[in-house]
Structures are given as C-alpha cells and as structure tokens.
C-alpha cells in the first residue's frame, strides 16, 4: 500500500514538474520568437538601407534609397517587397532540395508595409539639404560663411539688388525728351528740332541682349537644354512624411551658406565646367532656373551688369572730378540751346551711360578670371569719358588689379540671395540630369529617393505565435 501511495505522489509531482517545465519552455519559445522577429526586422530594414543609390553617393555624397530600383515604377511597395524578402530569407536556415527549411520556431512574414518615408524633396527639399549640410560640416567653412554673409549684407546696404536704376535712367531720358528744343528749317522749308549728339544714346543702344554678347564674345560653344517637364522643380512630385522626427531643420544663415558651399563643391559654373554634367553652367541654372545654358548665363550676366552699374553710378556721383568731366561734356553738347535745365539732365544721362560702360568692362574682366571690388575707388576705375564719346561696341579690357571679388564670389552672393526652396529644387534638378546620364538610371527621380522610413511588420509562427513590430530606420 505504501509503495502505491508513493507512485501516485510521484505521478502527481511529475505532472506538476512537467507542466512547469513545459510552461518555461513555452515562455522561452515565445521570448525567442519575439527576439528573432526583432532581430530579423532589424536585419531586413538595414538591408533595405544598404541598397542606397551608388551613383548618387559617388557624385553627390548623399545616402538615399531609390524606391524605383532603376525601373519606371516609383512605389513604396517596391521597397516593402524588398524588406519582406530580406526577412523571409533570414527565417530560412537551409534547403532540402528545392524546399526551404525553417528553424524550430517556423517563423514567416505575414505583412511588411512601409507606412512613412522621408523623401529627398520633402519640406521644400530640406530632407536632401540636411544631408548635404552634414557632409559639408566635416570641413572647416567658418571663413567662407562669414565672408559670404558679409558680402551679401554690403550689397544690400548699397541697394545693388533693389535699386531701380533702369527706372531712374528712363525717367531722366523722358525729361530730356520733354524739353522743347529750338527749331530750324530744312531745305524743304520744314521746321525741325535741332538735335544734339548725346554719347549716352550710343551706349544705351547696346543695352539688353547685345550687352551679353559684348562681354562674352563667341557664344557658339554654349549648349545644353532641358525639358521643363523632366525637372523635379516643375513636375508634380511624390510626397513623403517629411523630415525624420528628432532632426533639426536647416533654417539658419550658416546652414544656407554651408549648402551653397556644397553646391559649389559638386556643381560646375562658367569657367569651371564639369565633364560629367548635362548642363555645363549648373550654378547659373540654380540661380536663374531657365531651360538652357545660354539663357541661364545671359540672365546671370545681366544681373551682374545691373549690380555693377548701380555700384559704379554710386561711385561716379561721389567723384567730383568725374562729375565735372560729365558736366563739361554736357555743356559742350547743349551750349547752342542755352537751356540750363537741359545741361543737368544731359550730365545725368552721361553719368548713367558711363556707369553702364564701366559695368560692361567689369563683367568682361570677371568672365576672364579677373576681380572687381563691390564698391570702387578711383584706383579701380577702368574707363574714361573718351571711351564714352567714341563708343561703338568696343569694351576696354582695363587692367585687372587683382583686388576685389571674382566671378565665383559674385555668383556665390546670387546663390545666397536665392529663395531656399527654389534653390533646393533646382539643385535636385541638376542631380537628376547628371544621374540619368549614367547606365541603368534613365528613370531616376529624386522624389523617389528616401533616407528613412517607418515599417509596419507582422510575423507569425507555425505554432500559433504572432507579433507586430513598428520600427523607424534611417541614415544618421
């Protein structure tokens, strides 16, 4: 009887112990299921990020995954499928012939979706800009930042960008035209106003598109045209969730200048063209936004002429000697009319024309690699009033004293003054153009590139276990 009771007691004890052991094993398996699911999710998400676009990294040092993977299909589902495949492959431990063999947990992916993406063009291109700035922060740029901001502030203080010098000149010309001049009879007995040969009229005749060719010379070598519908800045873009939470938006002045430094590091401009580029004058494109190299360069040069004309006029009006020269020429031209008011108007028109002629000489010097200070002194002045009187389209070269700003410096100021979002979008236009020239990237789009994403993953086991995982991964 005692032996039987011992057997019953042992049986009951063993059943309790076995239940405890099985419970522990079950708990261990559930923990392992969760741990393996988390590990495989990490591996899968990292594997997706490891598919960064090689050409984008090589040419622009940016880390983005192209969700089109070289095709014309730009869909988040493409990357989600890559994520699912990576995870499934990590659940397989081997193969029995053609049949995959899973481990004792027998896990599989039920769902692998991508809920959010930080796309390069999101938030006005700030997602791309953040990476570009991070790349430039590895270099010491304090000197360039301070220099560019200082030059832009000086340009603003003198009103070189905002002053309506063309309106002032036209107003003076209208007043000259409104002056009633004496009349004389011609051979046929008709009475006509006596005209005078104002040299300012000859200079003003070369304004506009003619000035562009005067300072540049031969333009036959300039080519490169892009279709507007191919540009990120012009088309309807794919949109993501914006910048990854926790990251600072690039908004302060030093961020903008650092990004400009990045663009000068990666792009070409007049006098520093890149062989790899579709458009040769890439910085000019970012500043001007026109569809051809010719139009972009012309727009930049006209703006540069306007800046220099304004600065030169400010100097001329402060130089009593040159003002006296202009007044003497005006007196000589109008002496027969005996109209004092006309003298001052003609003197002003001469000063405006002289400032313009000097600006043409300045820009010609800049395009040849010379330097021109933002605001001149008498030592920097190139032209004389004789150049004005004899002008027929010939621009004096003048001596380059090597003092002041070069073409790149002026271009850097223009870039700094450009609207931040426009600049970001046009920079990505350039990136698309260049990368589409490389093999296998004919359909490349910056708005199909992401640098971080939020996944929604569901994993289950053949033994009835199930877990949901949400993770956000991106490039730091």
What does this structure look like?
The protein is an alpha+beta fold. Helix content is 53%, strand content 11%. The chain contains 16 helices and 8 strands. It has helices at residues 2-49, 54-60, 76-91, 122-136, 142-158, 165-178, 199-204, 209-216, 253-266, 282-288, 293-318, 320-334, 340-367, 385-389, 407-417, 420-436, and strands at 65-66, 92-96, 99-102, 107-119, 183-185, 191-193, 449-461, 466-474. Strands 1, 4, 7 and 8 form a 4-stranded antiparallel beta sheet that branches. Strand 2 (92-96) and strand 3 (99-102) form a beta hairpin. Helix 1 runs antiparallel to helix 3 and helix 10 runs antiparallel to helix 16. The longest helix has 48 residues, at 2-49. The chain is rod-shaped.
Write a brief structural summary.
The chain is α+β, with helices and mostly antiparallel strands and 476 residues long. It is 53% helix and 11% strand.
Mean pLDDT: 89
Low-confidence stretches: none
Cα distance, first to last residue?
74 Å
Order of helices and strands: HHEHEEEHHHEEHHHHHHHHHHEE
Shape: rod-shaped
Using DSSP, what is the number of strands?
Answer: 8
- Measured by DSSP, the beta-strand proportion falls in 5-15%
How big is the Rg?
Answer: 36 Å
Structural class: alpha+beta
Describe the largest sheet.
4 strands, antiparallel
């Amino acid at each position: 009887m005692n032996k039987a009771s011992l057997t019953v007691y042992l049986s009951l004890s063993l059943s309790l112990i076995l239940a405890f052991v099985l419970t522990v094993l079950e708990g261990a398996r559930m923990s392992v299921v969760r741990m393996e699911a988390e590990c495989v999710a990490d591996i899968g998400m990292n594997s997706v990020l490891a598919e960064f676009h090689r050409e984008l990294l090589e040419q622009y040092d940016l880390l983005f995954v192209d969700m089109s993977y070289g095709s014309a299909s730009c869909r988040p589902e493409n990357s989600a499928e890559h994520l699912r495949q990576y995870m499934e492959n990590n659940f397989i431990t081997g193969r029995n012939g053609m049949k995959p063999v899973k481990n004792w947990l027998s896990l599989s992916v039920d769902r692998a979706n991508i809920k959010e993406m930080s796309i390069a063009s999101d938030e006005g291109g700030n997602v791309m800009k953040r990476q570009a700035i991070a790349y430039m922060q590895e270099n010491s740029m304090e000197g360039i930042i301070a220099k560019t901001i200082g030059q832009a502030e000086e340009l603003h203080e003198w009103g070189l960008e905002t002053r309506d010098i063309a309106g002032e000149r036209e107003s003076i010309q209208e007043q000259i035209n409104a002056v009633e001049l004496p009349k004389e009879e011609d051979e046929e007995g008709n009475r006509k106003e006596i005209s005078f040969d104002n040299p300012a009229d000859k200079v003003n005749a070369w304004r506009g598109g003619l000035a562009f060719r005067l300072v540049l010379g031969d333009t036959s070598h300039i080519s490169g045209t892009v279709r507007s519908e191919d540009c990120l800045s012009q088309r309807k873009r794919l949109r993501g969730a914006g910048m990854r939470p926790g990251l600072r938006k690039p908004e302060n002045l030093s961020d903008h200048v650092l990004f400009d430094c990045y663009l000068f590091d990666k792009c070409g401009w007049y006098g520093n063209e890149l062989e790899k580029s579709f458009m040769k004058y890439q910085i000019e494109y970012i500043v001007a936004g026109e569809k051809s190299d010719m139009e972009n360069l012309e727009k930049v040069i006209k703006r540069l002429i306007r800046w220099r004309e304004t600065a030169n006029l400010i100097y001329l009006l402060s130089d009593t000697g040159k003002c006296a020269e202009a007044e003497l020429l005006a007196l000589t031209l109008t002496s027969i009319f005996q109209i004092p008011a006309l003298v001052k108007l003609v003197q002003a028109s001469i000063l405006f024309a002289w400032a313009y002629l000097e600006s043409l000489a300045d820009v010609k010097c800049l395009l040849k690699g010379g330097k021109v200070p933002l605001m001149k002194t008498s030592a920097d002045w190139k032209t004389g009033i004789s150049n004005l009187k004899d002008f027929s389209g010939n621009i004096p070269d003048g001596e380059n004293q090597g003092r002041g700003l070069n073409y790149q410096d002026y271009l850097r100021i223009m870039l700094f003054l450009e609207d931040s979002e426009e600049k970001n979008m046009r920079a990505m236009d350039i990136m698309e153009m260049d990368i589409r020239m490389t093999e296998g990237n004919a359909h490349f789009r910056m708005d199909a590139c992401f640098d971080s994403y939020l996944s929604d993953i569901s994993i289950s086991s053949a033994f009835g276990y199930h877990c949901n995982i949400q993770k956000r991964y991106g490039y730091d």
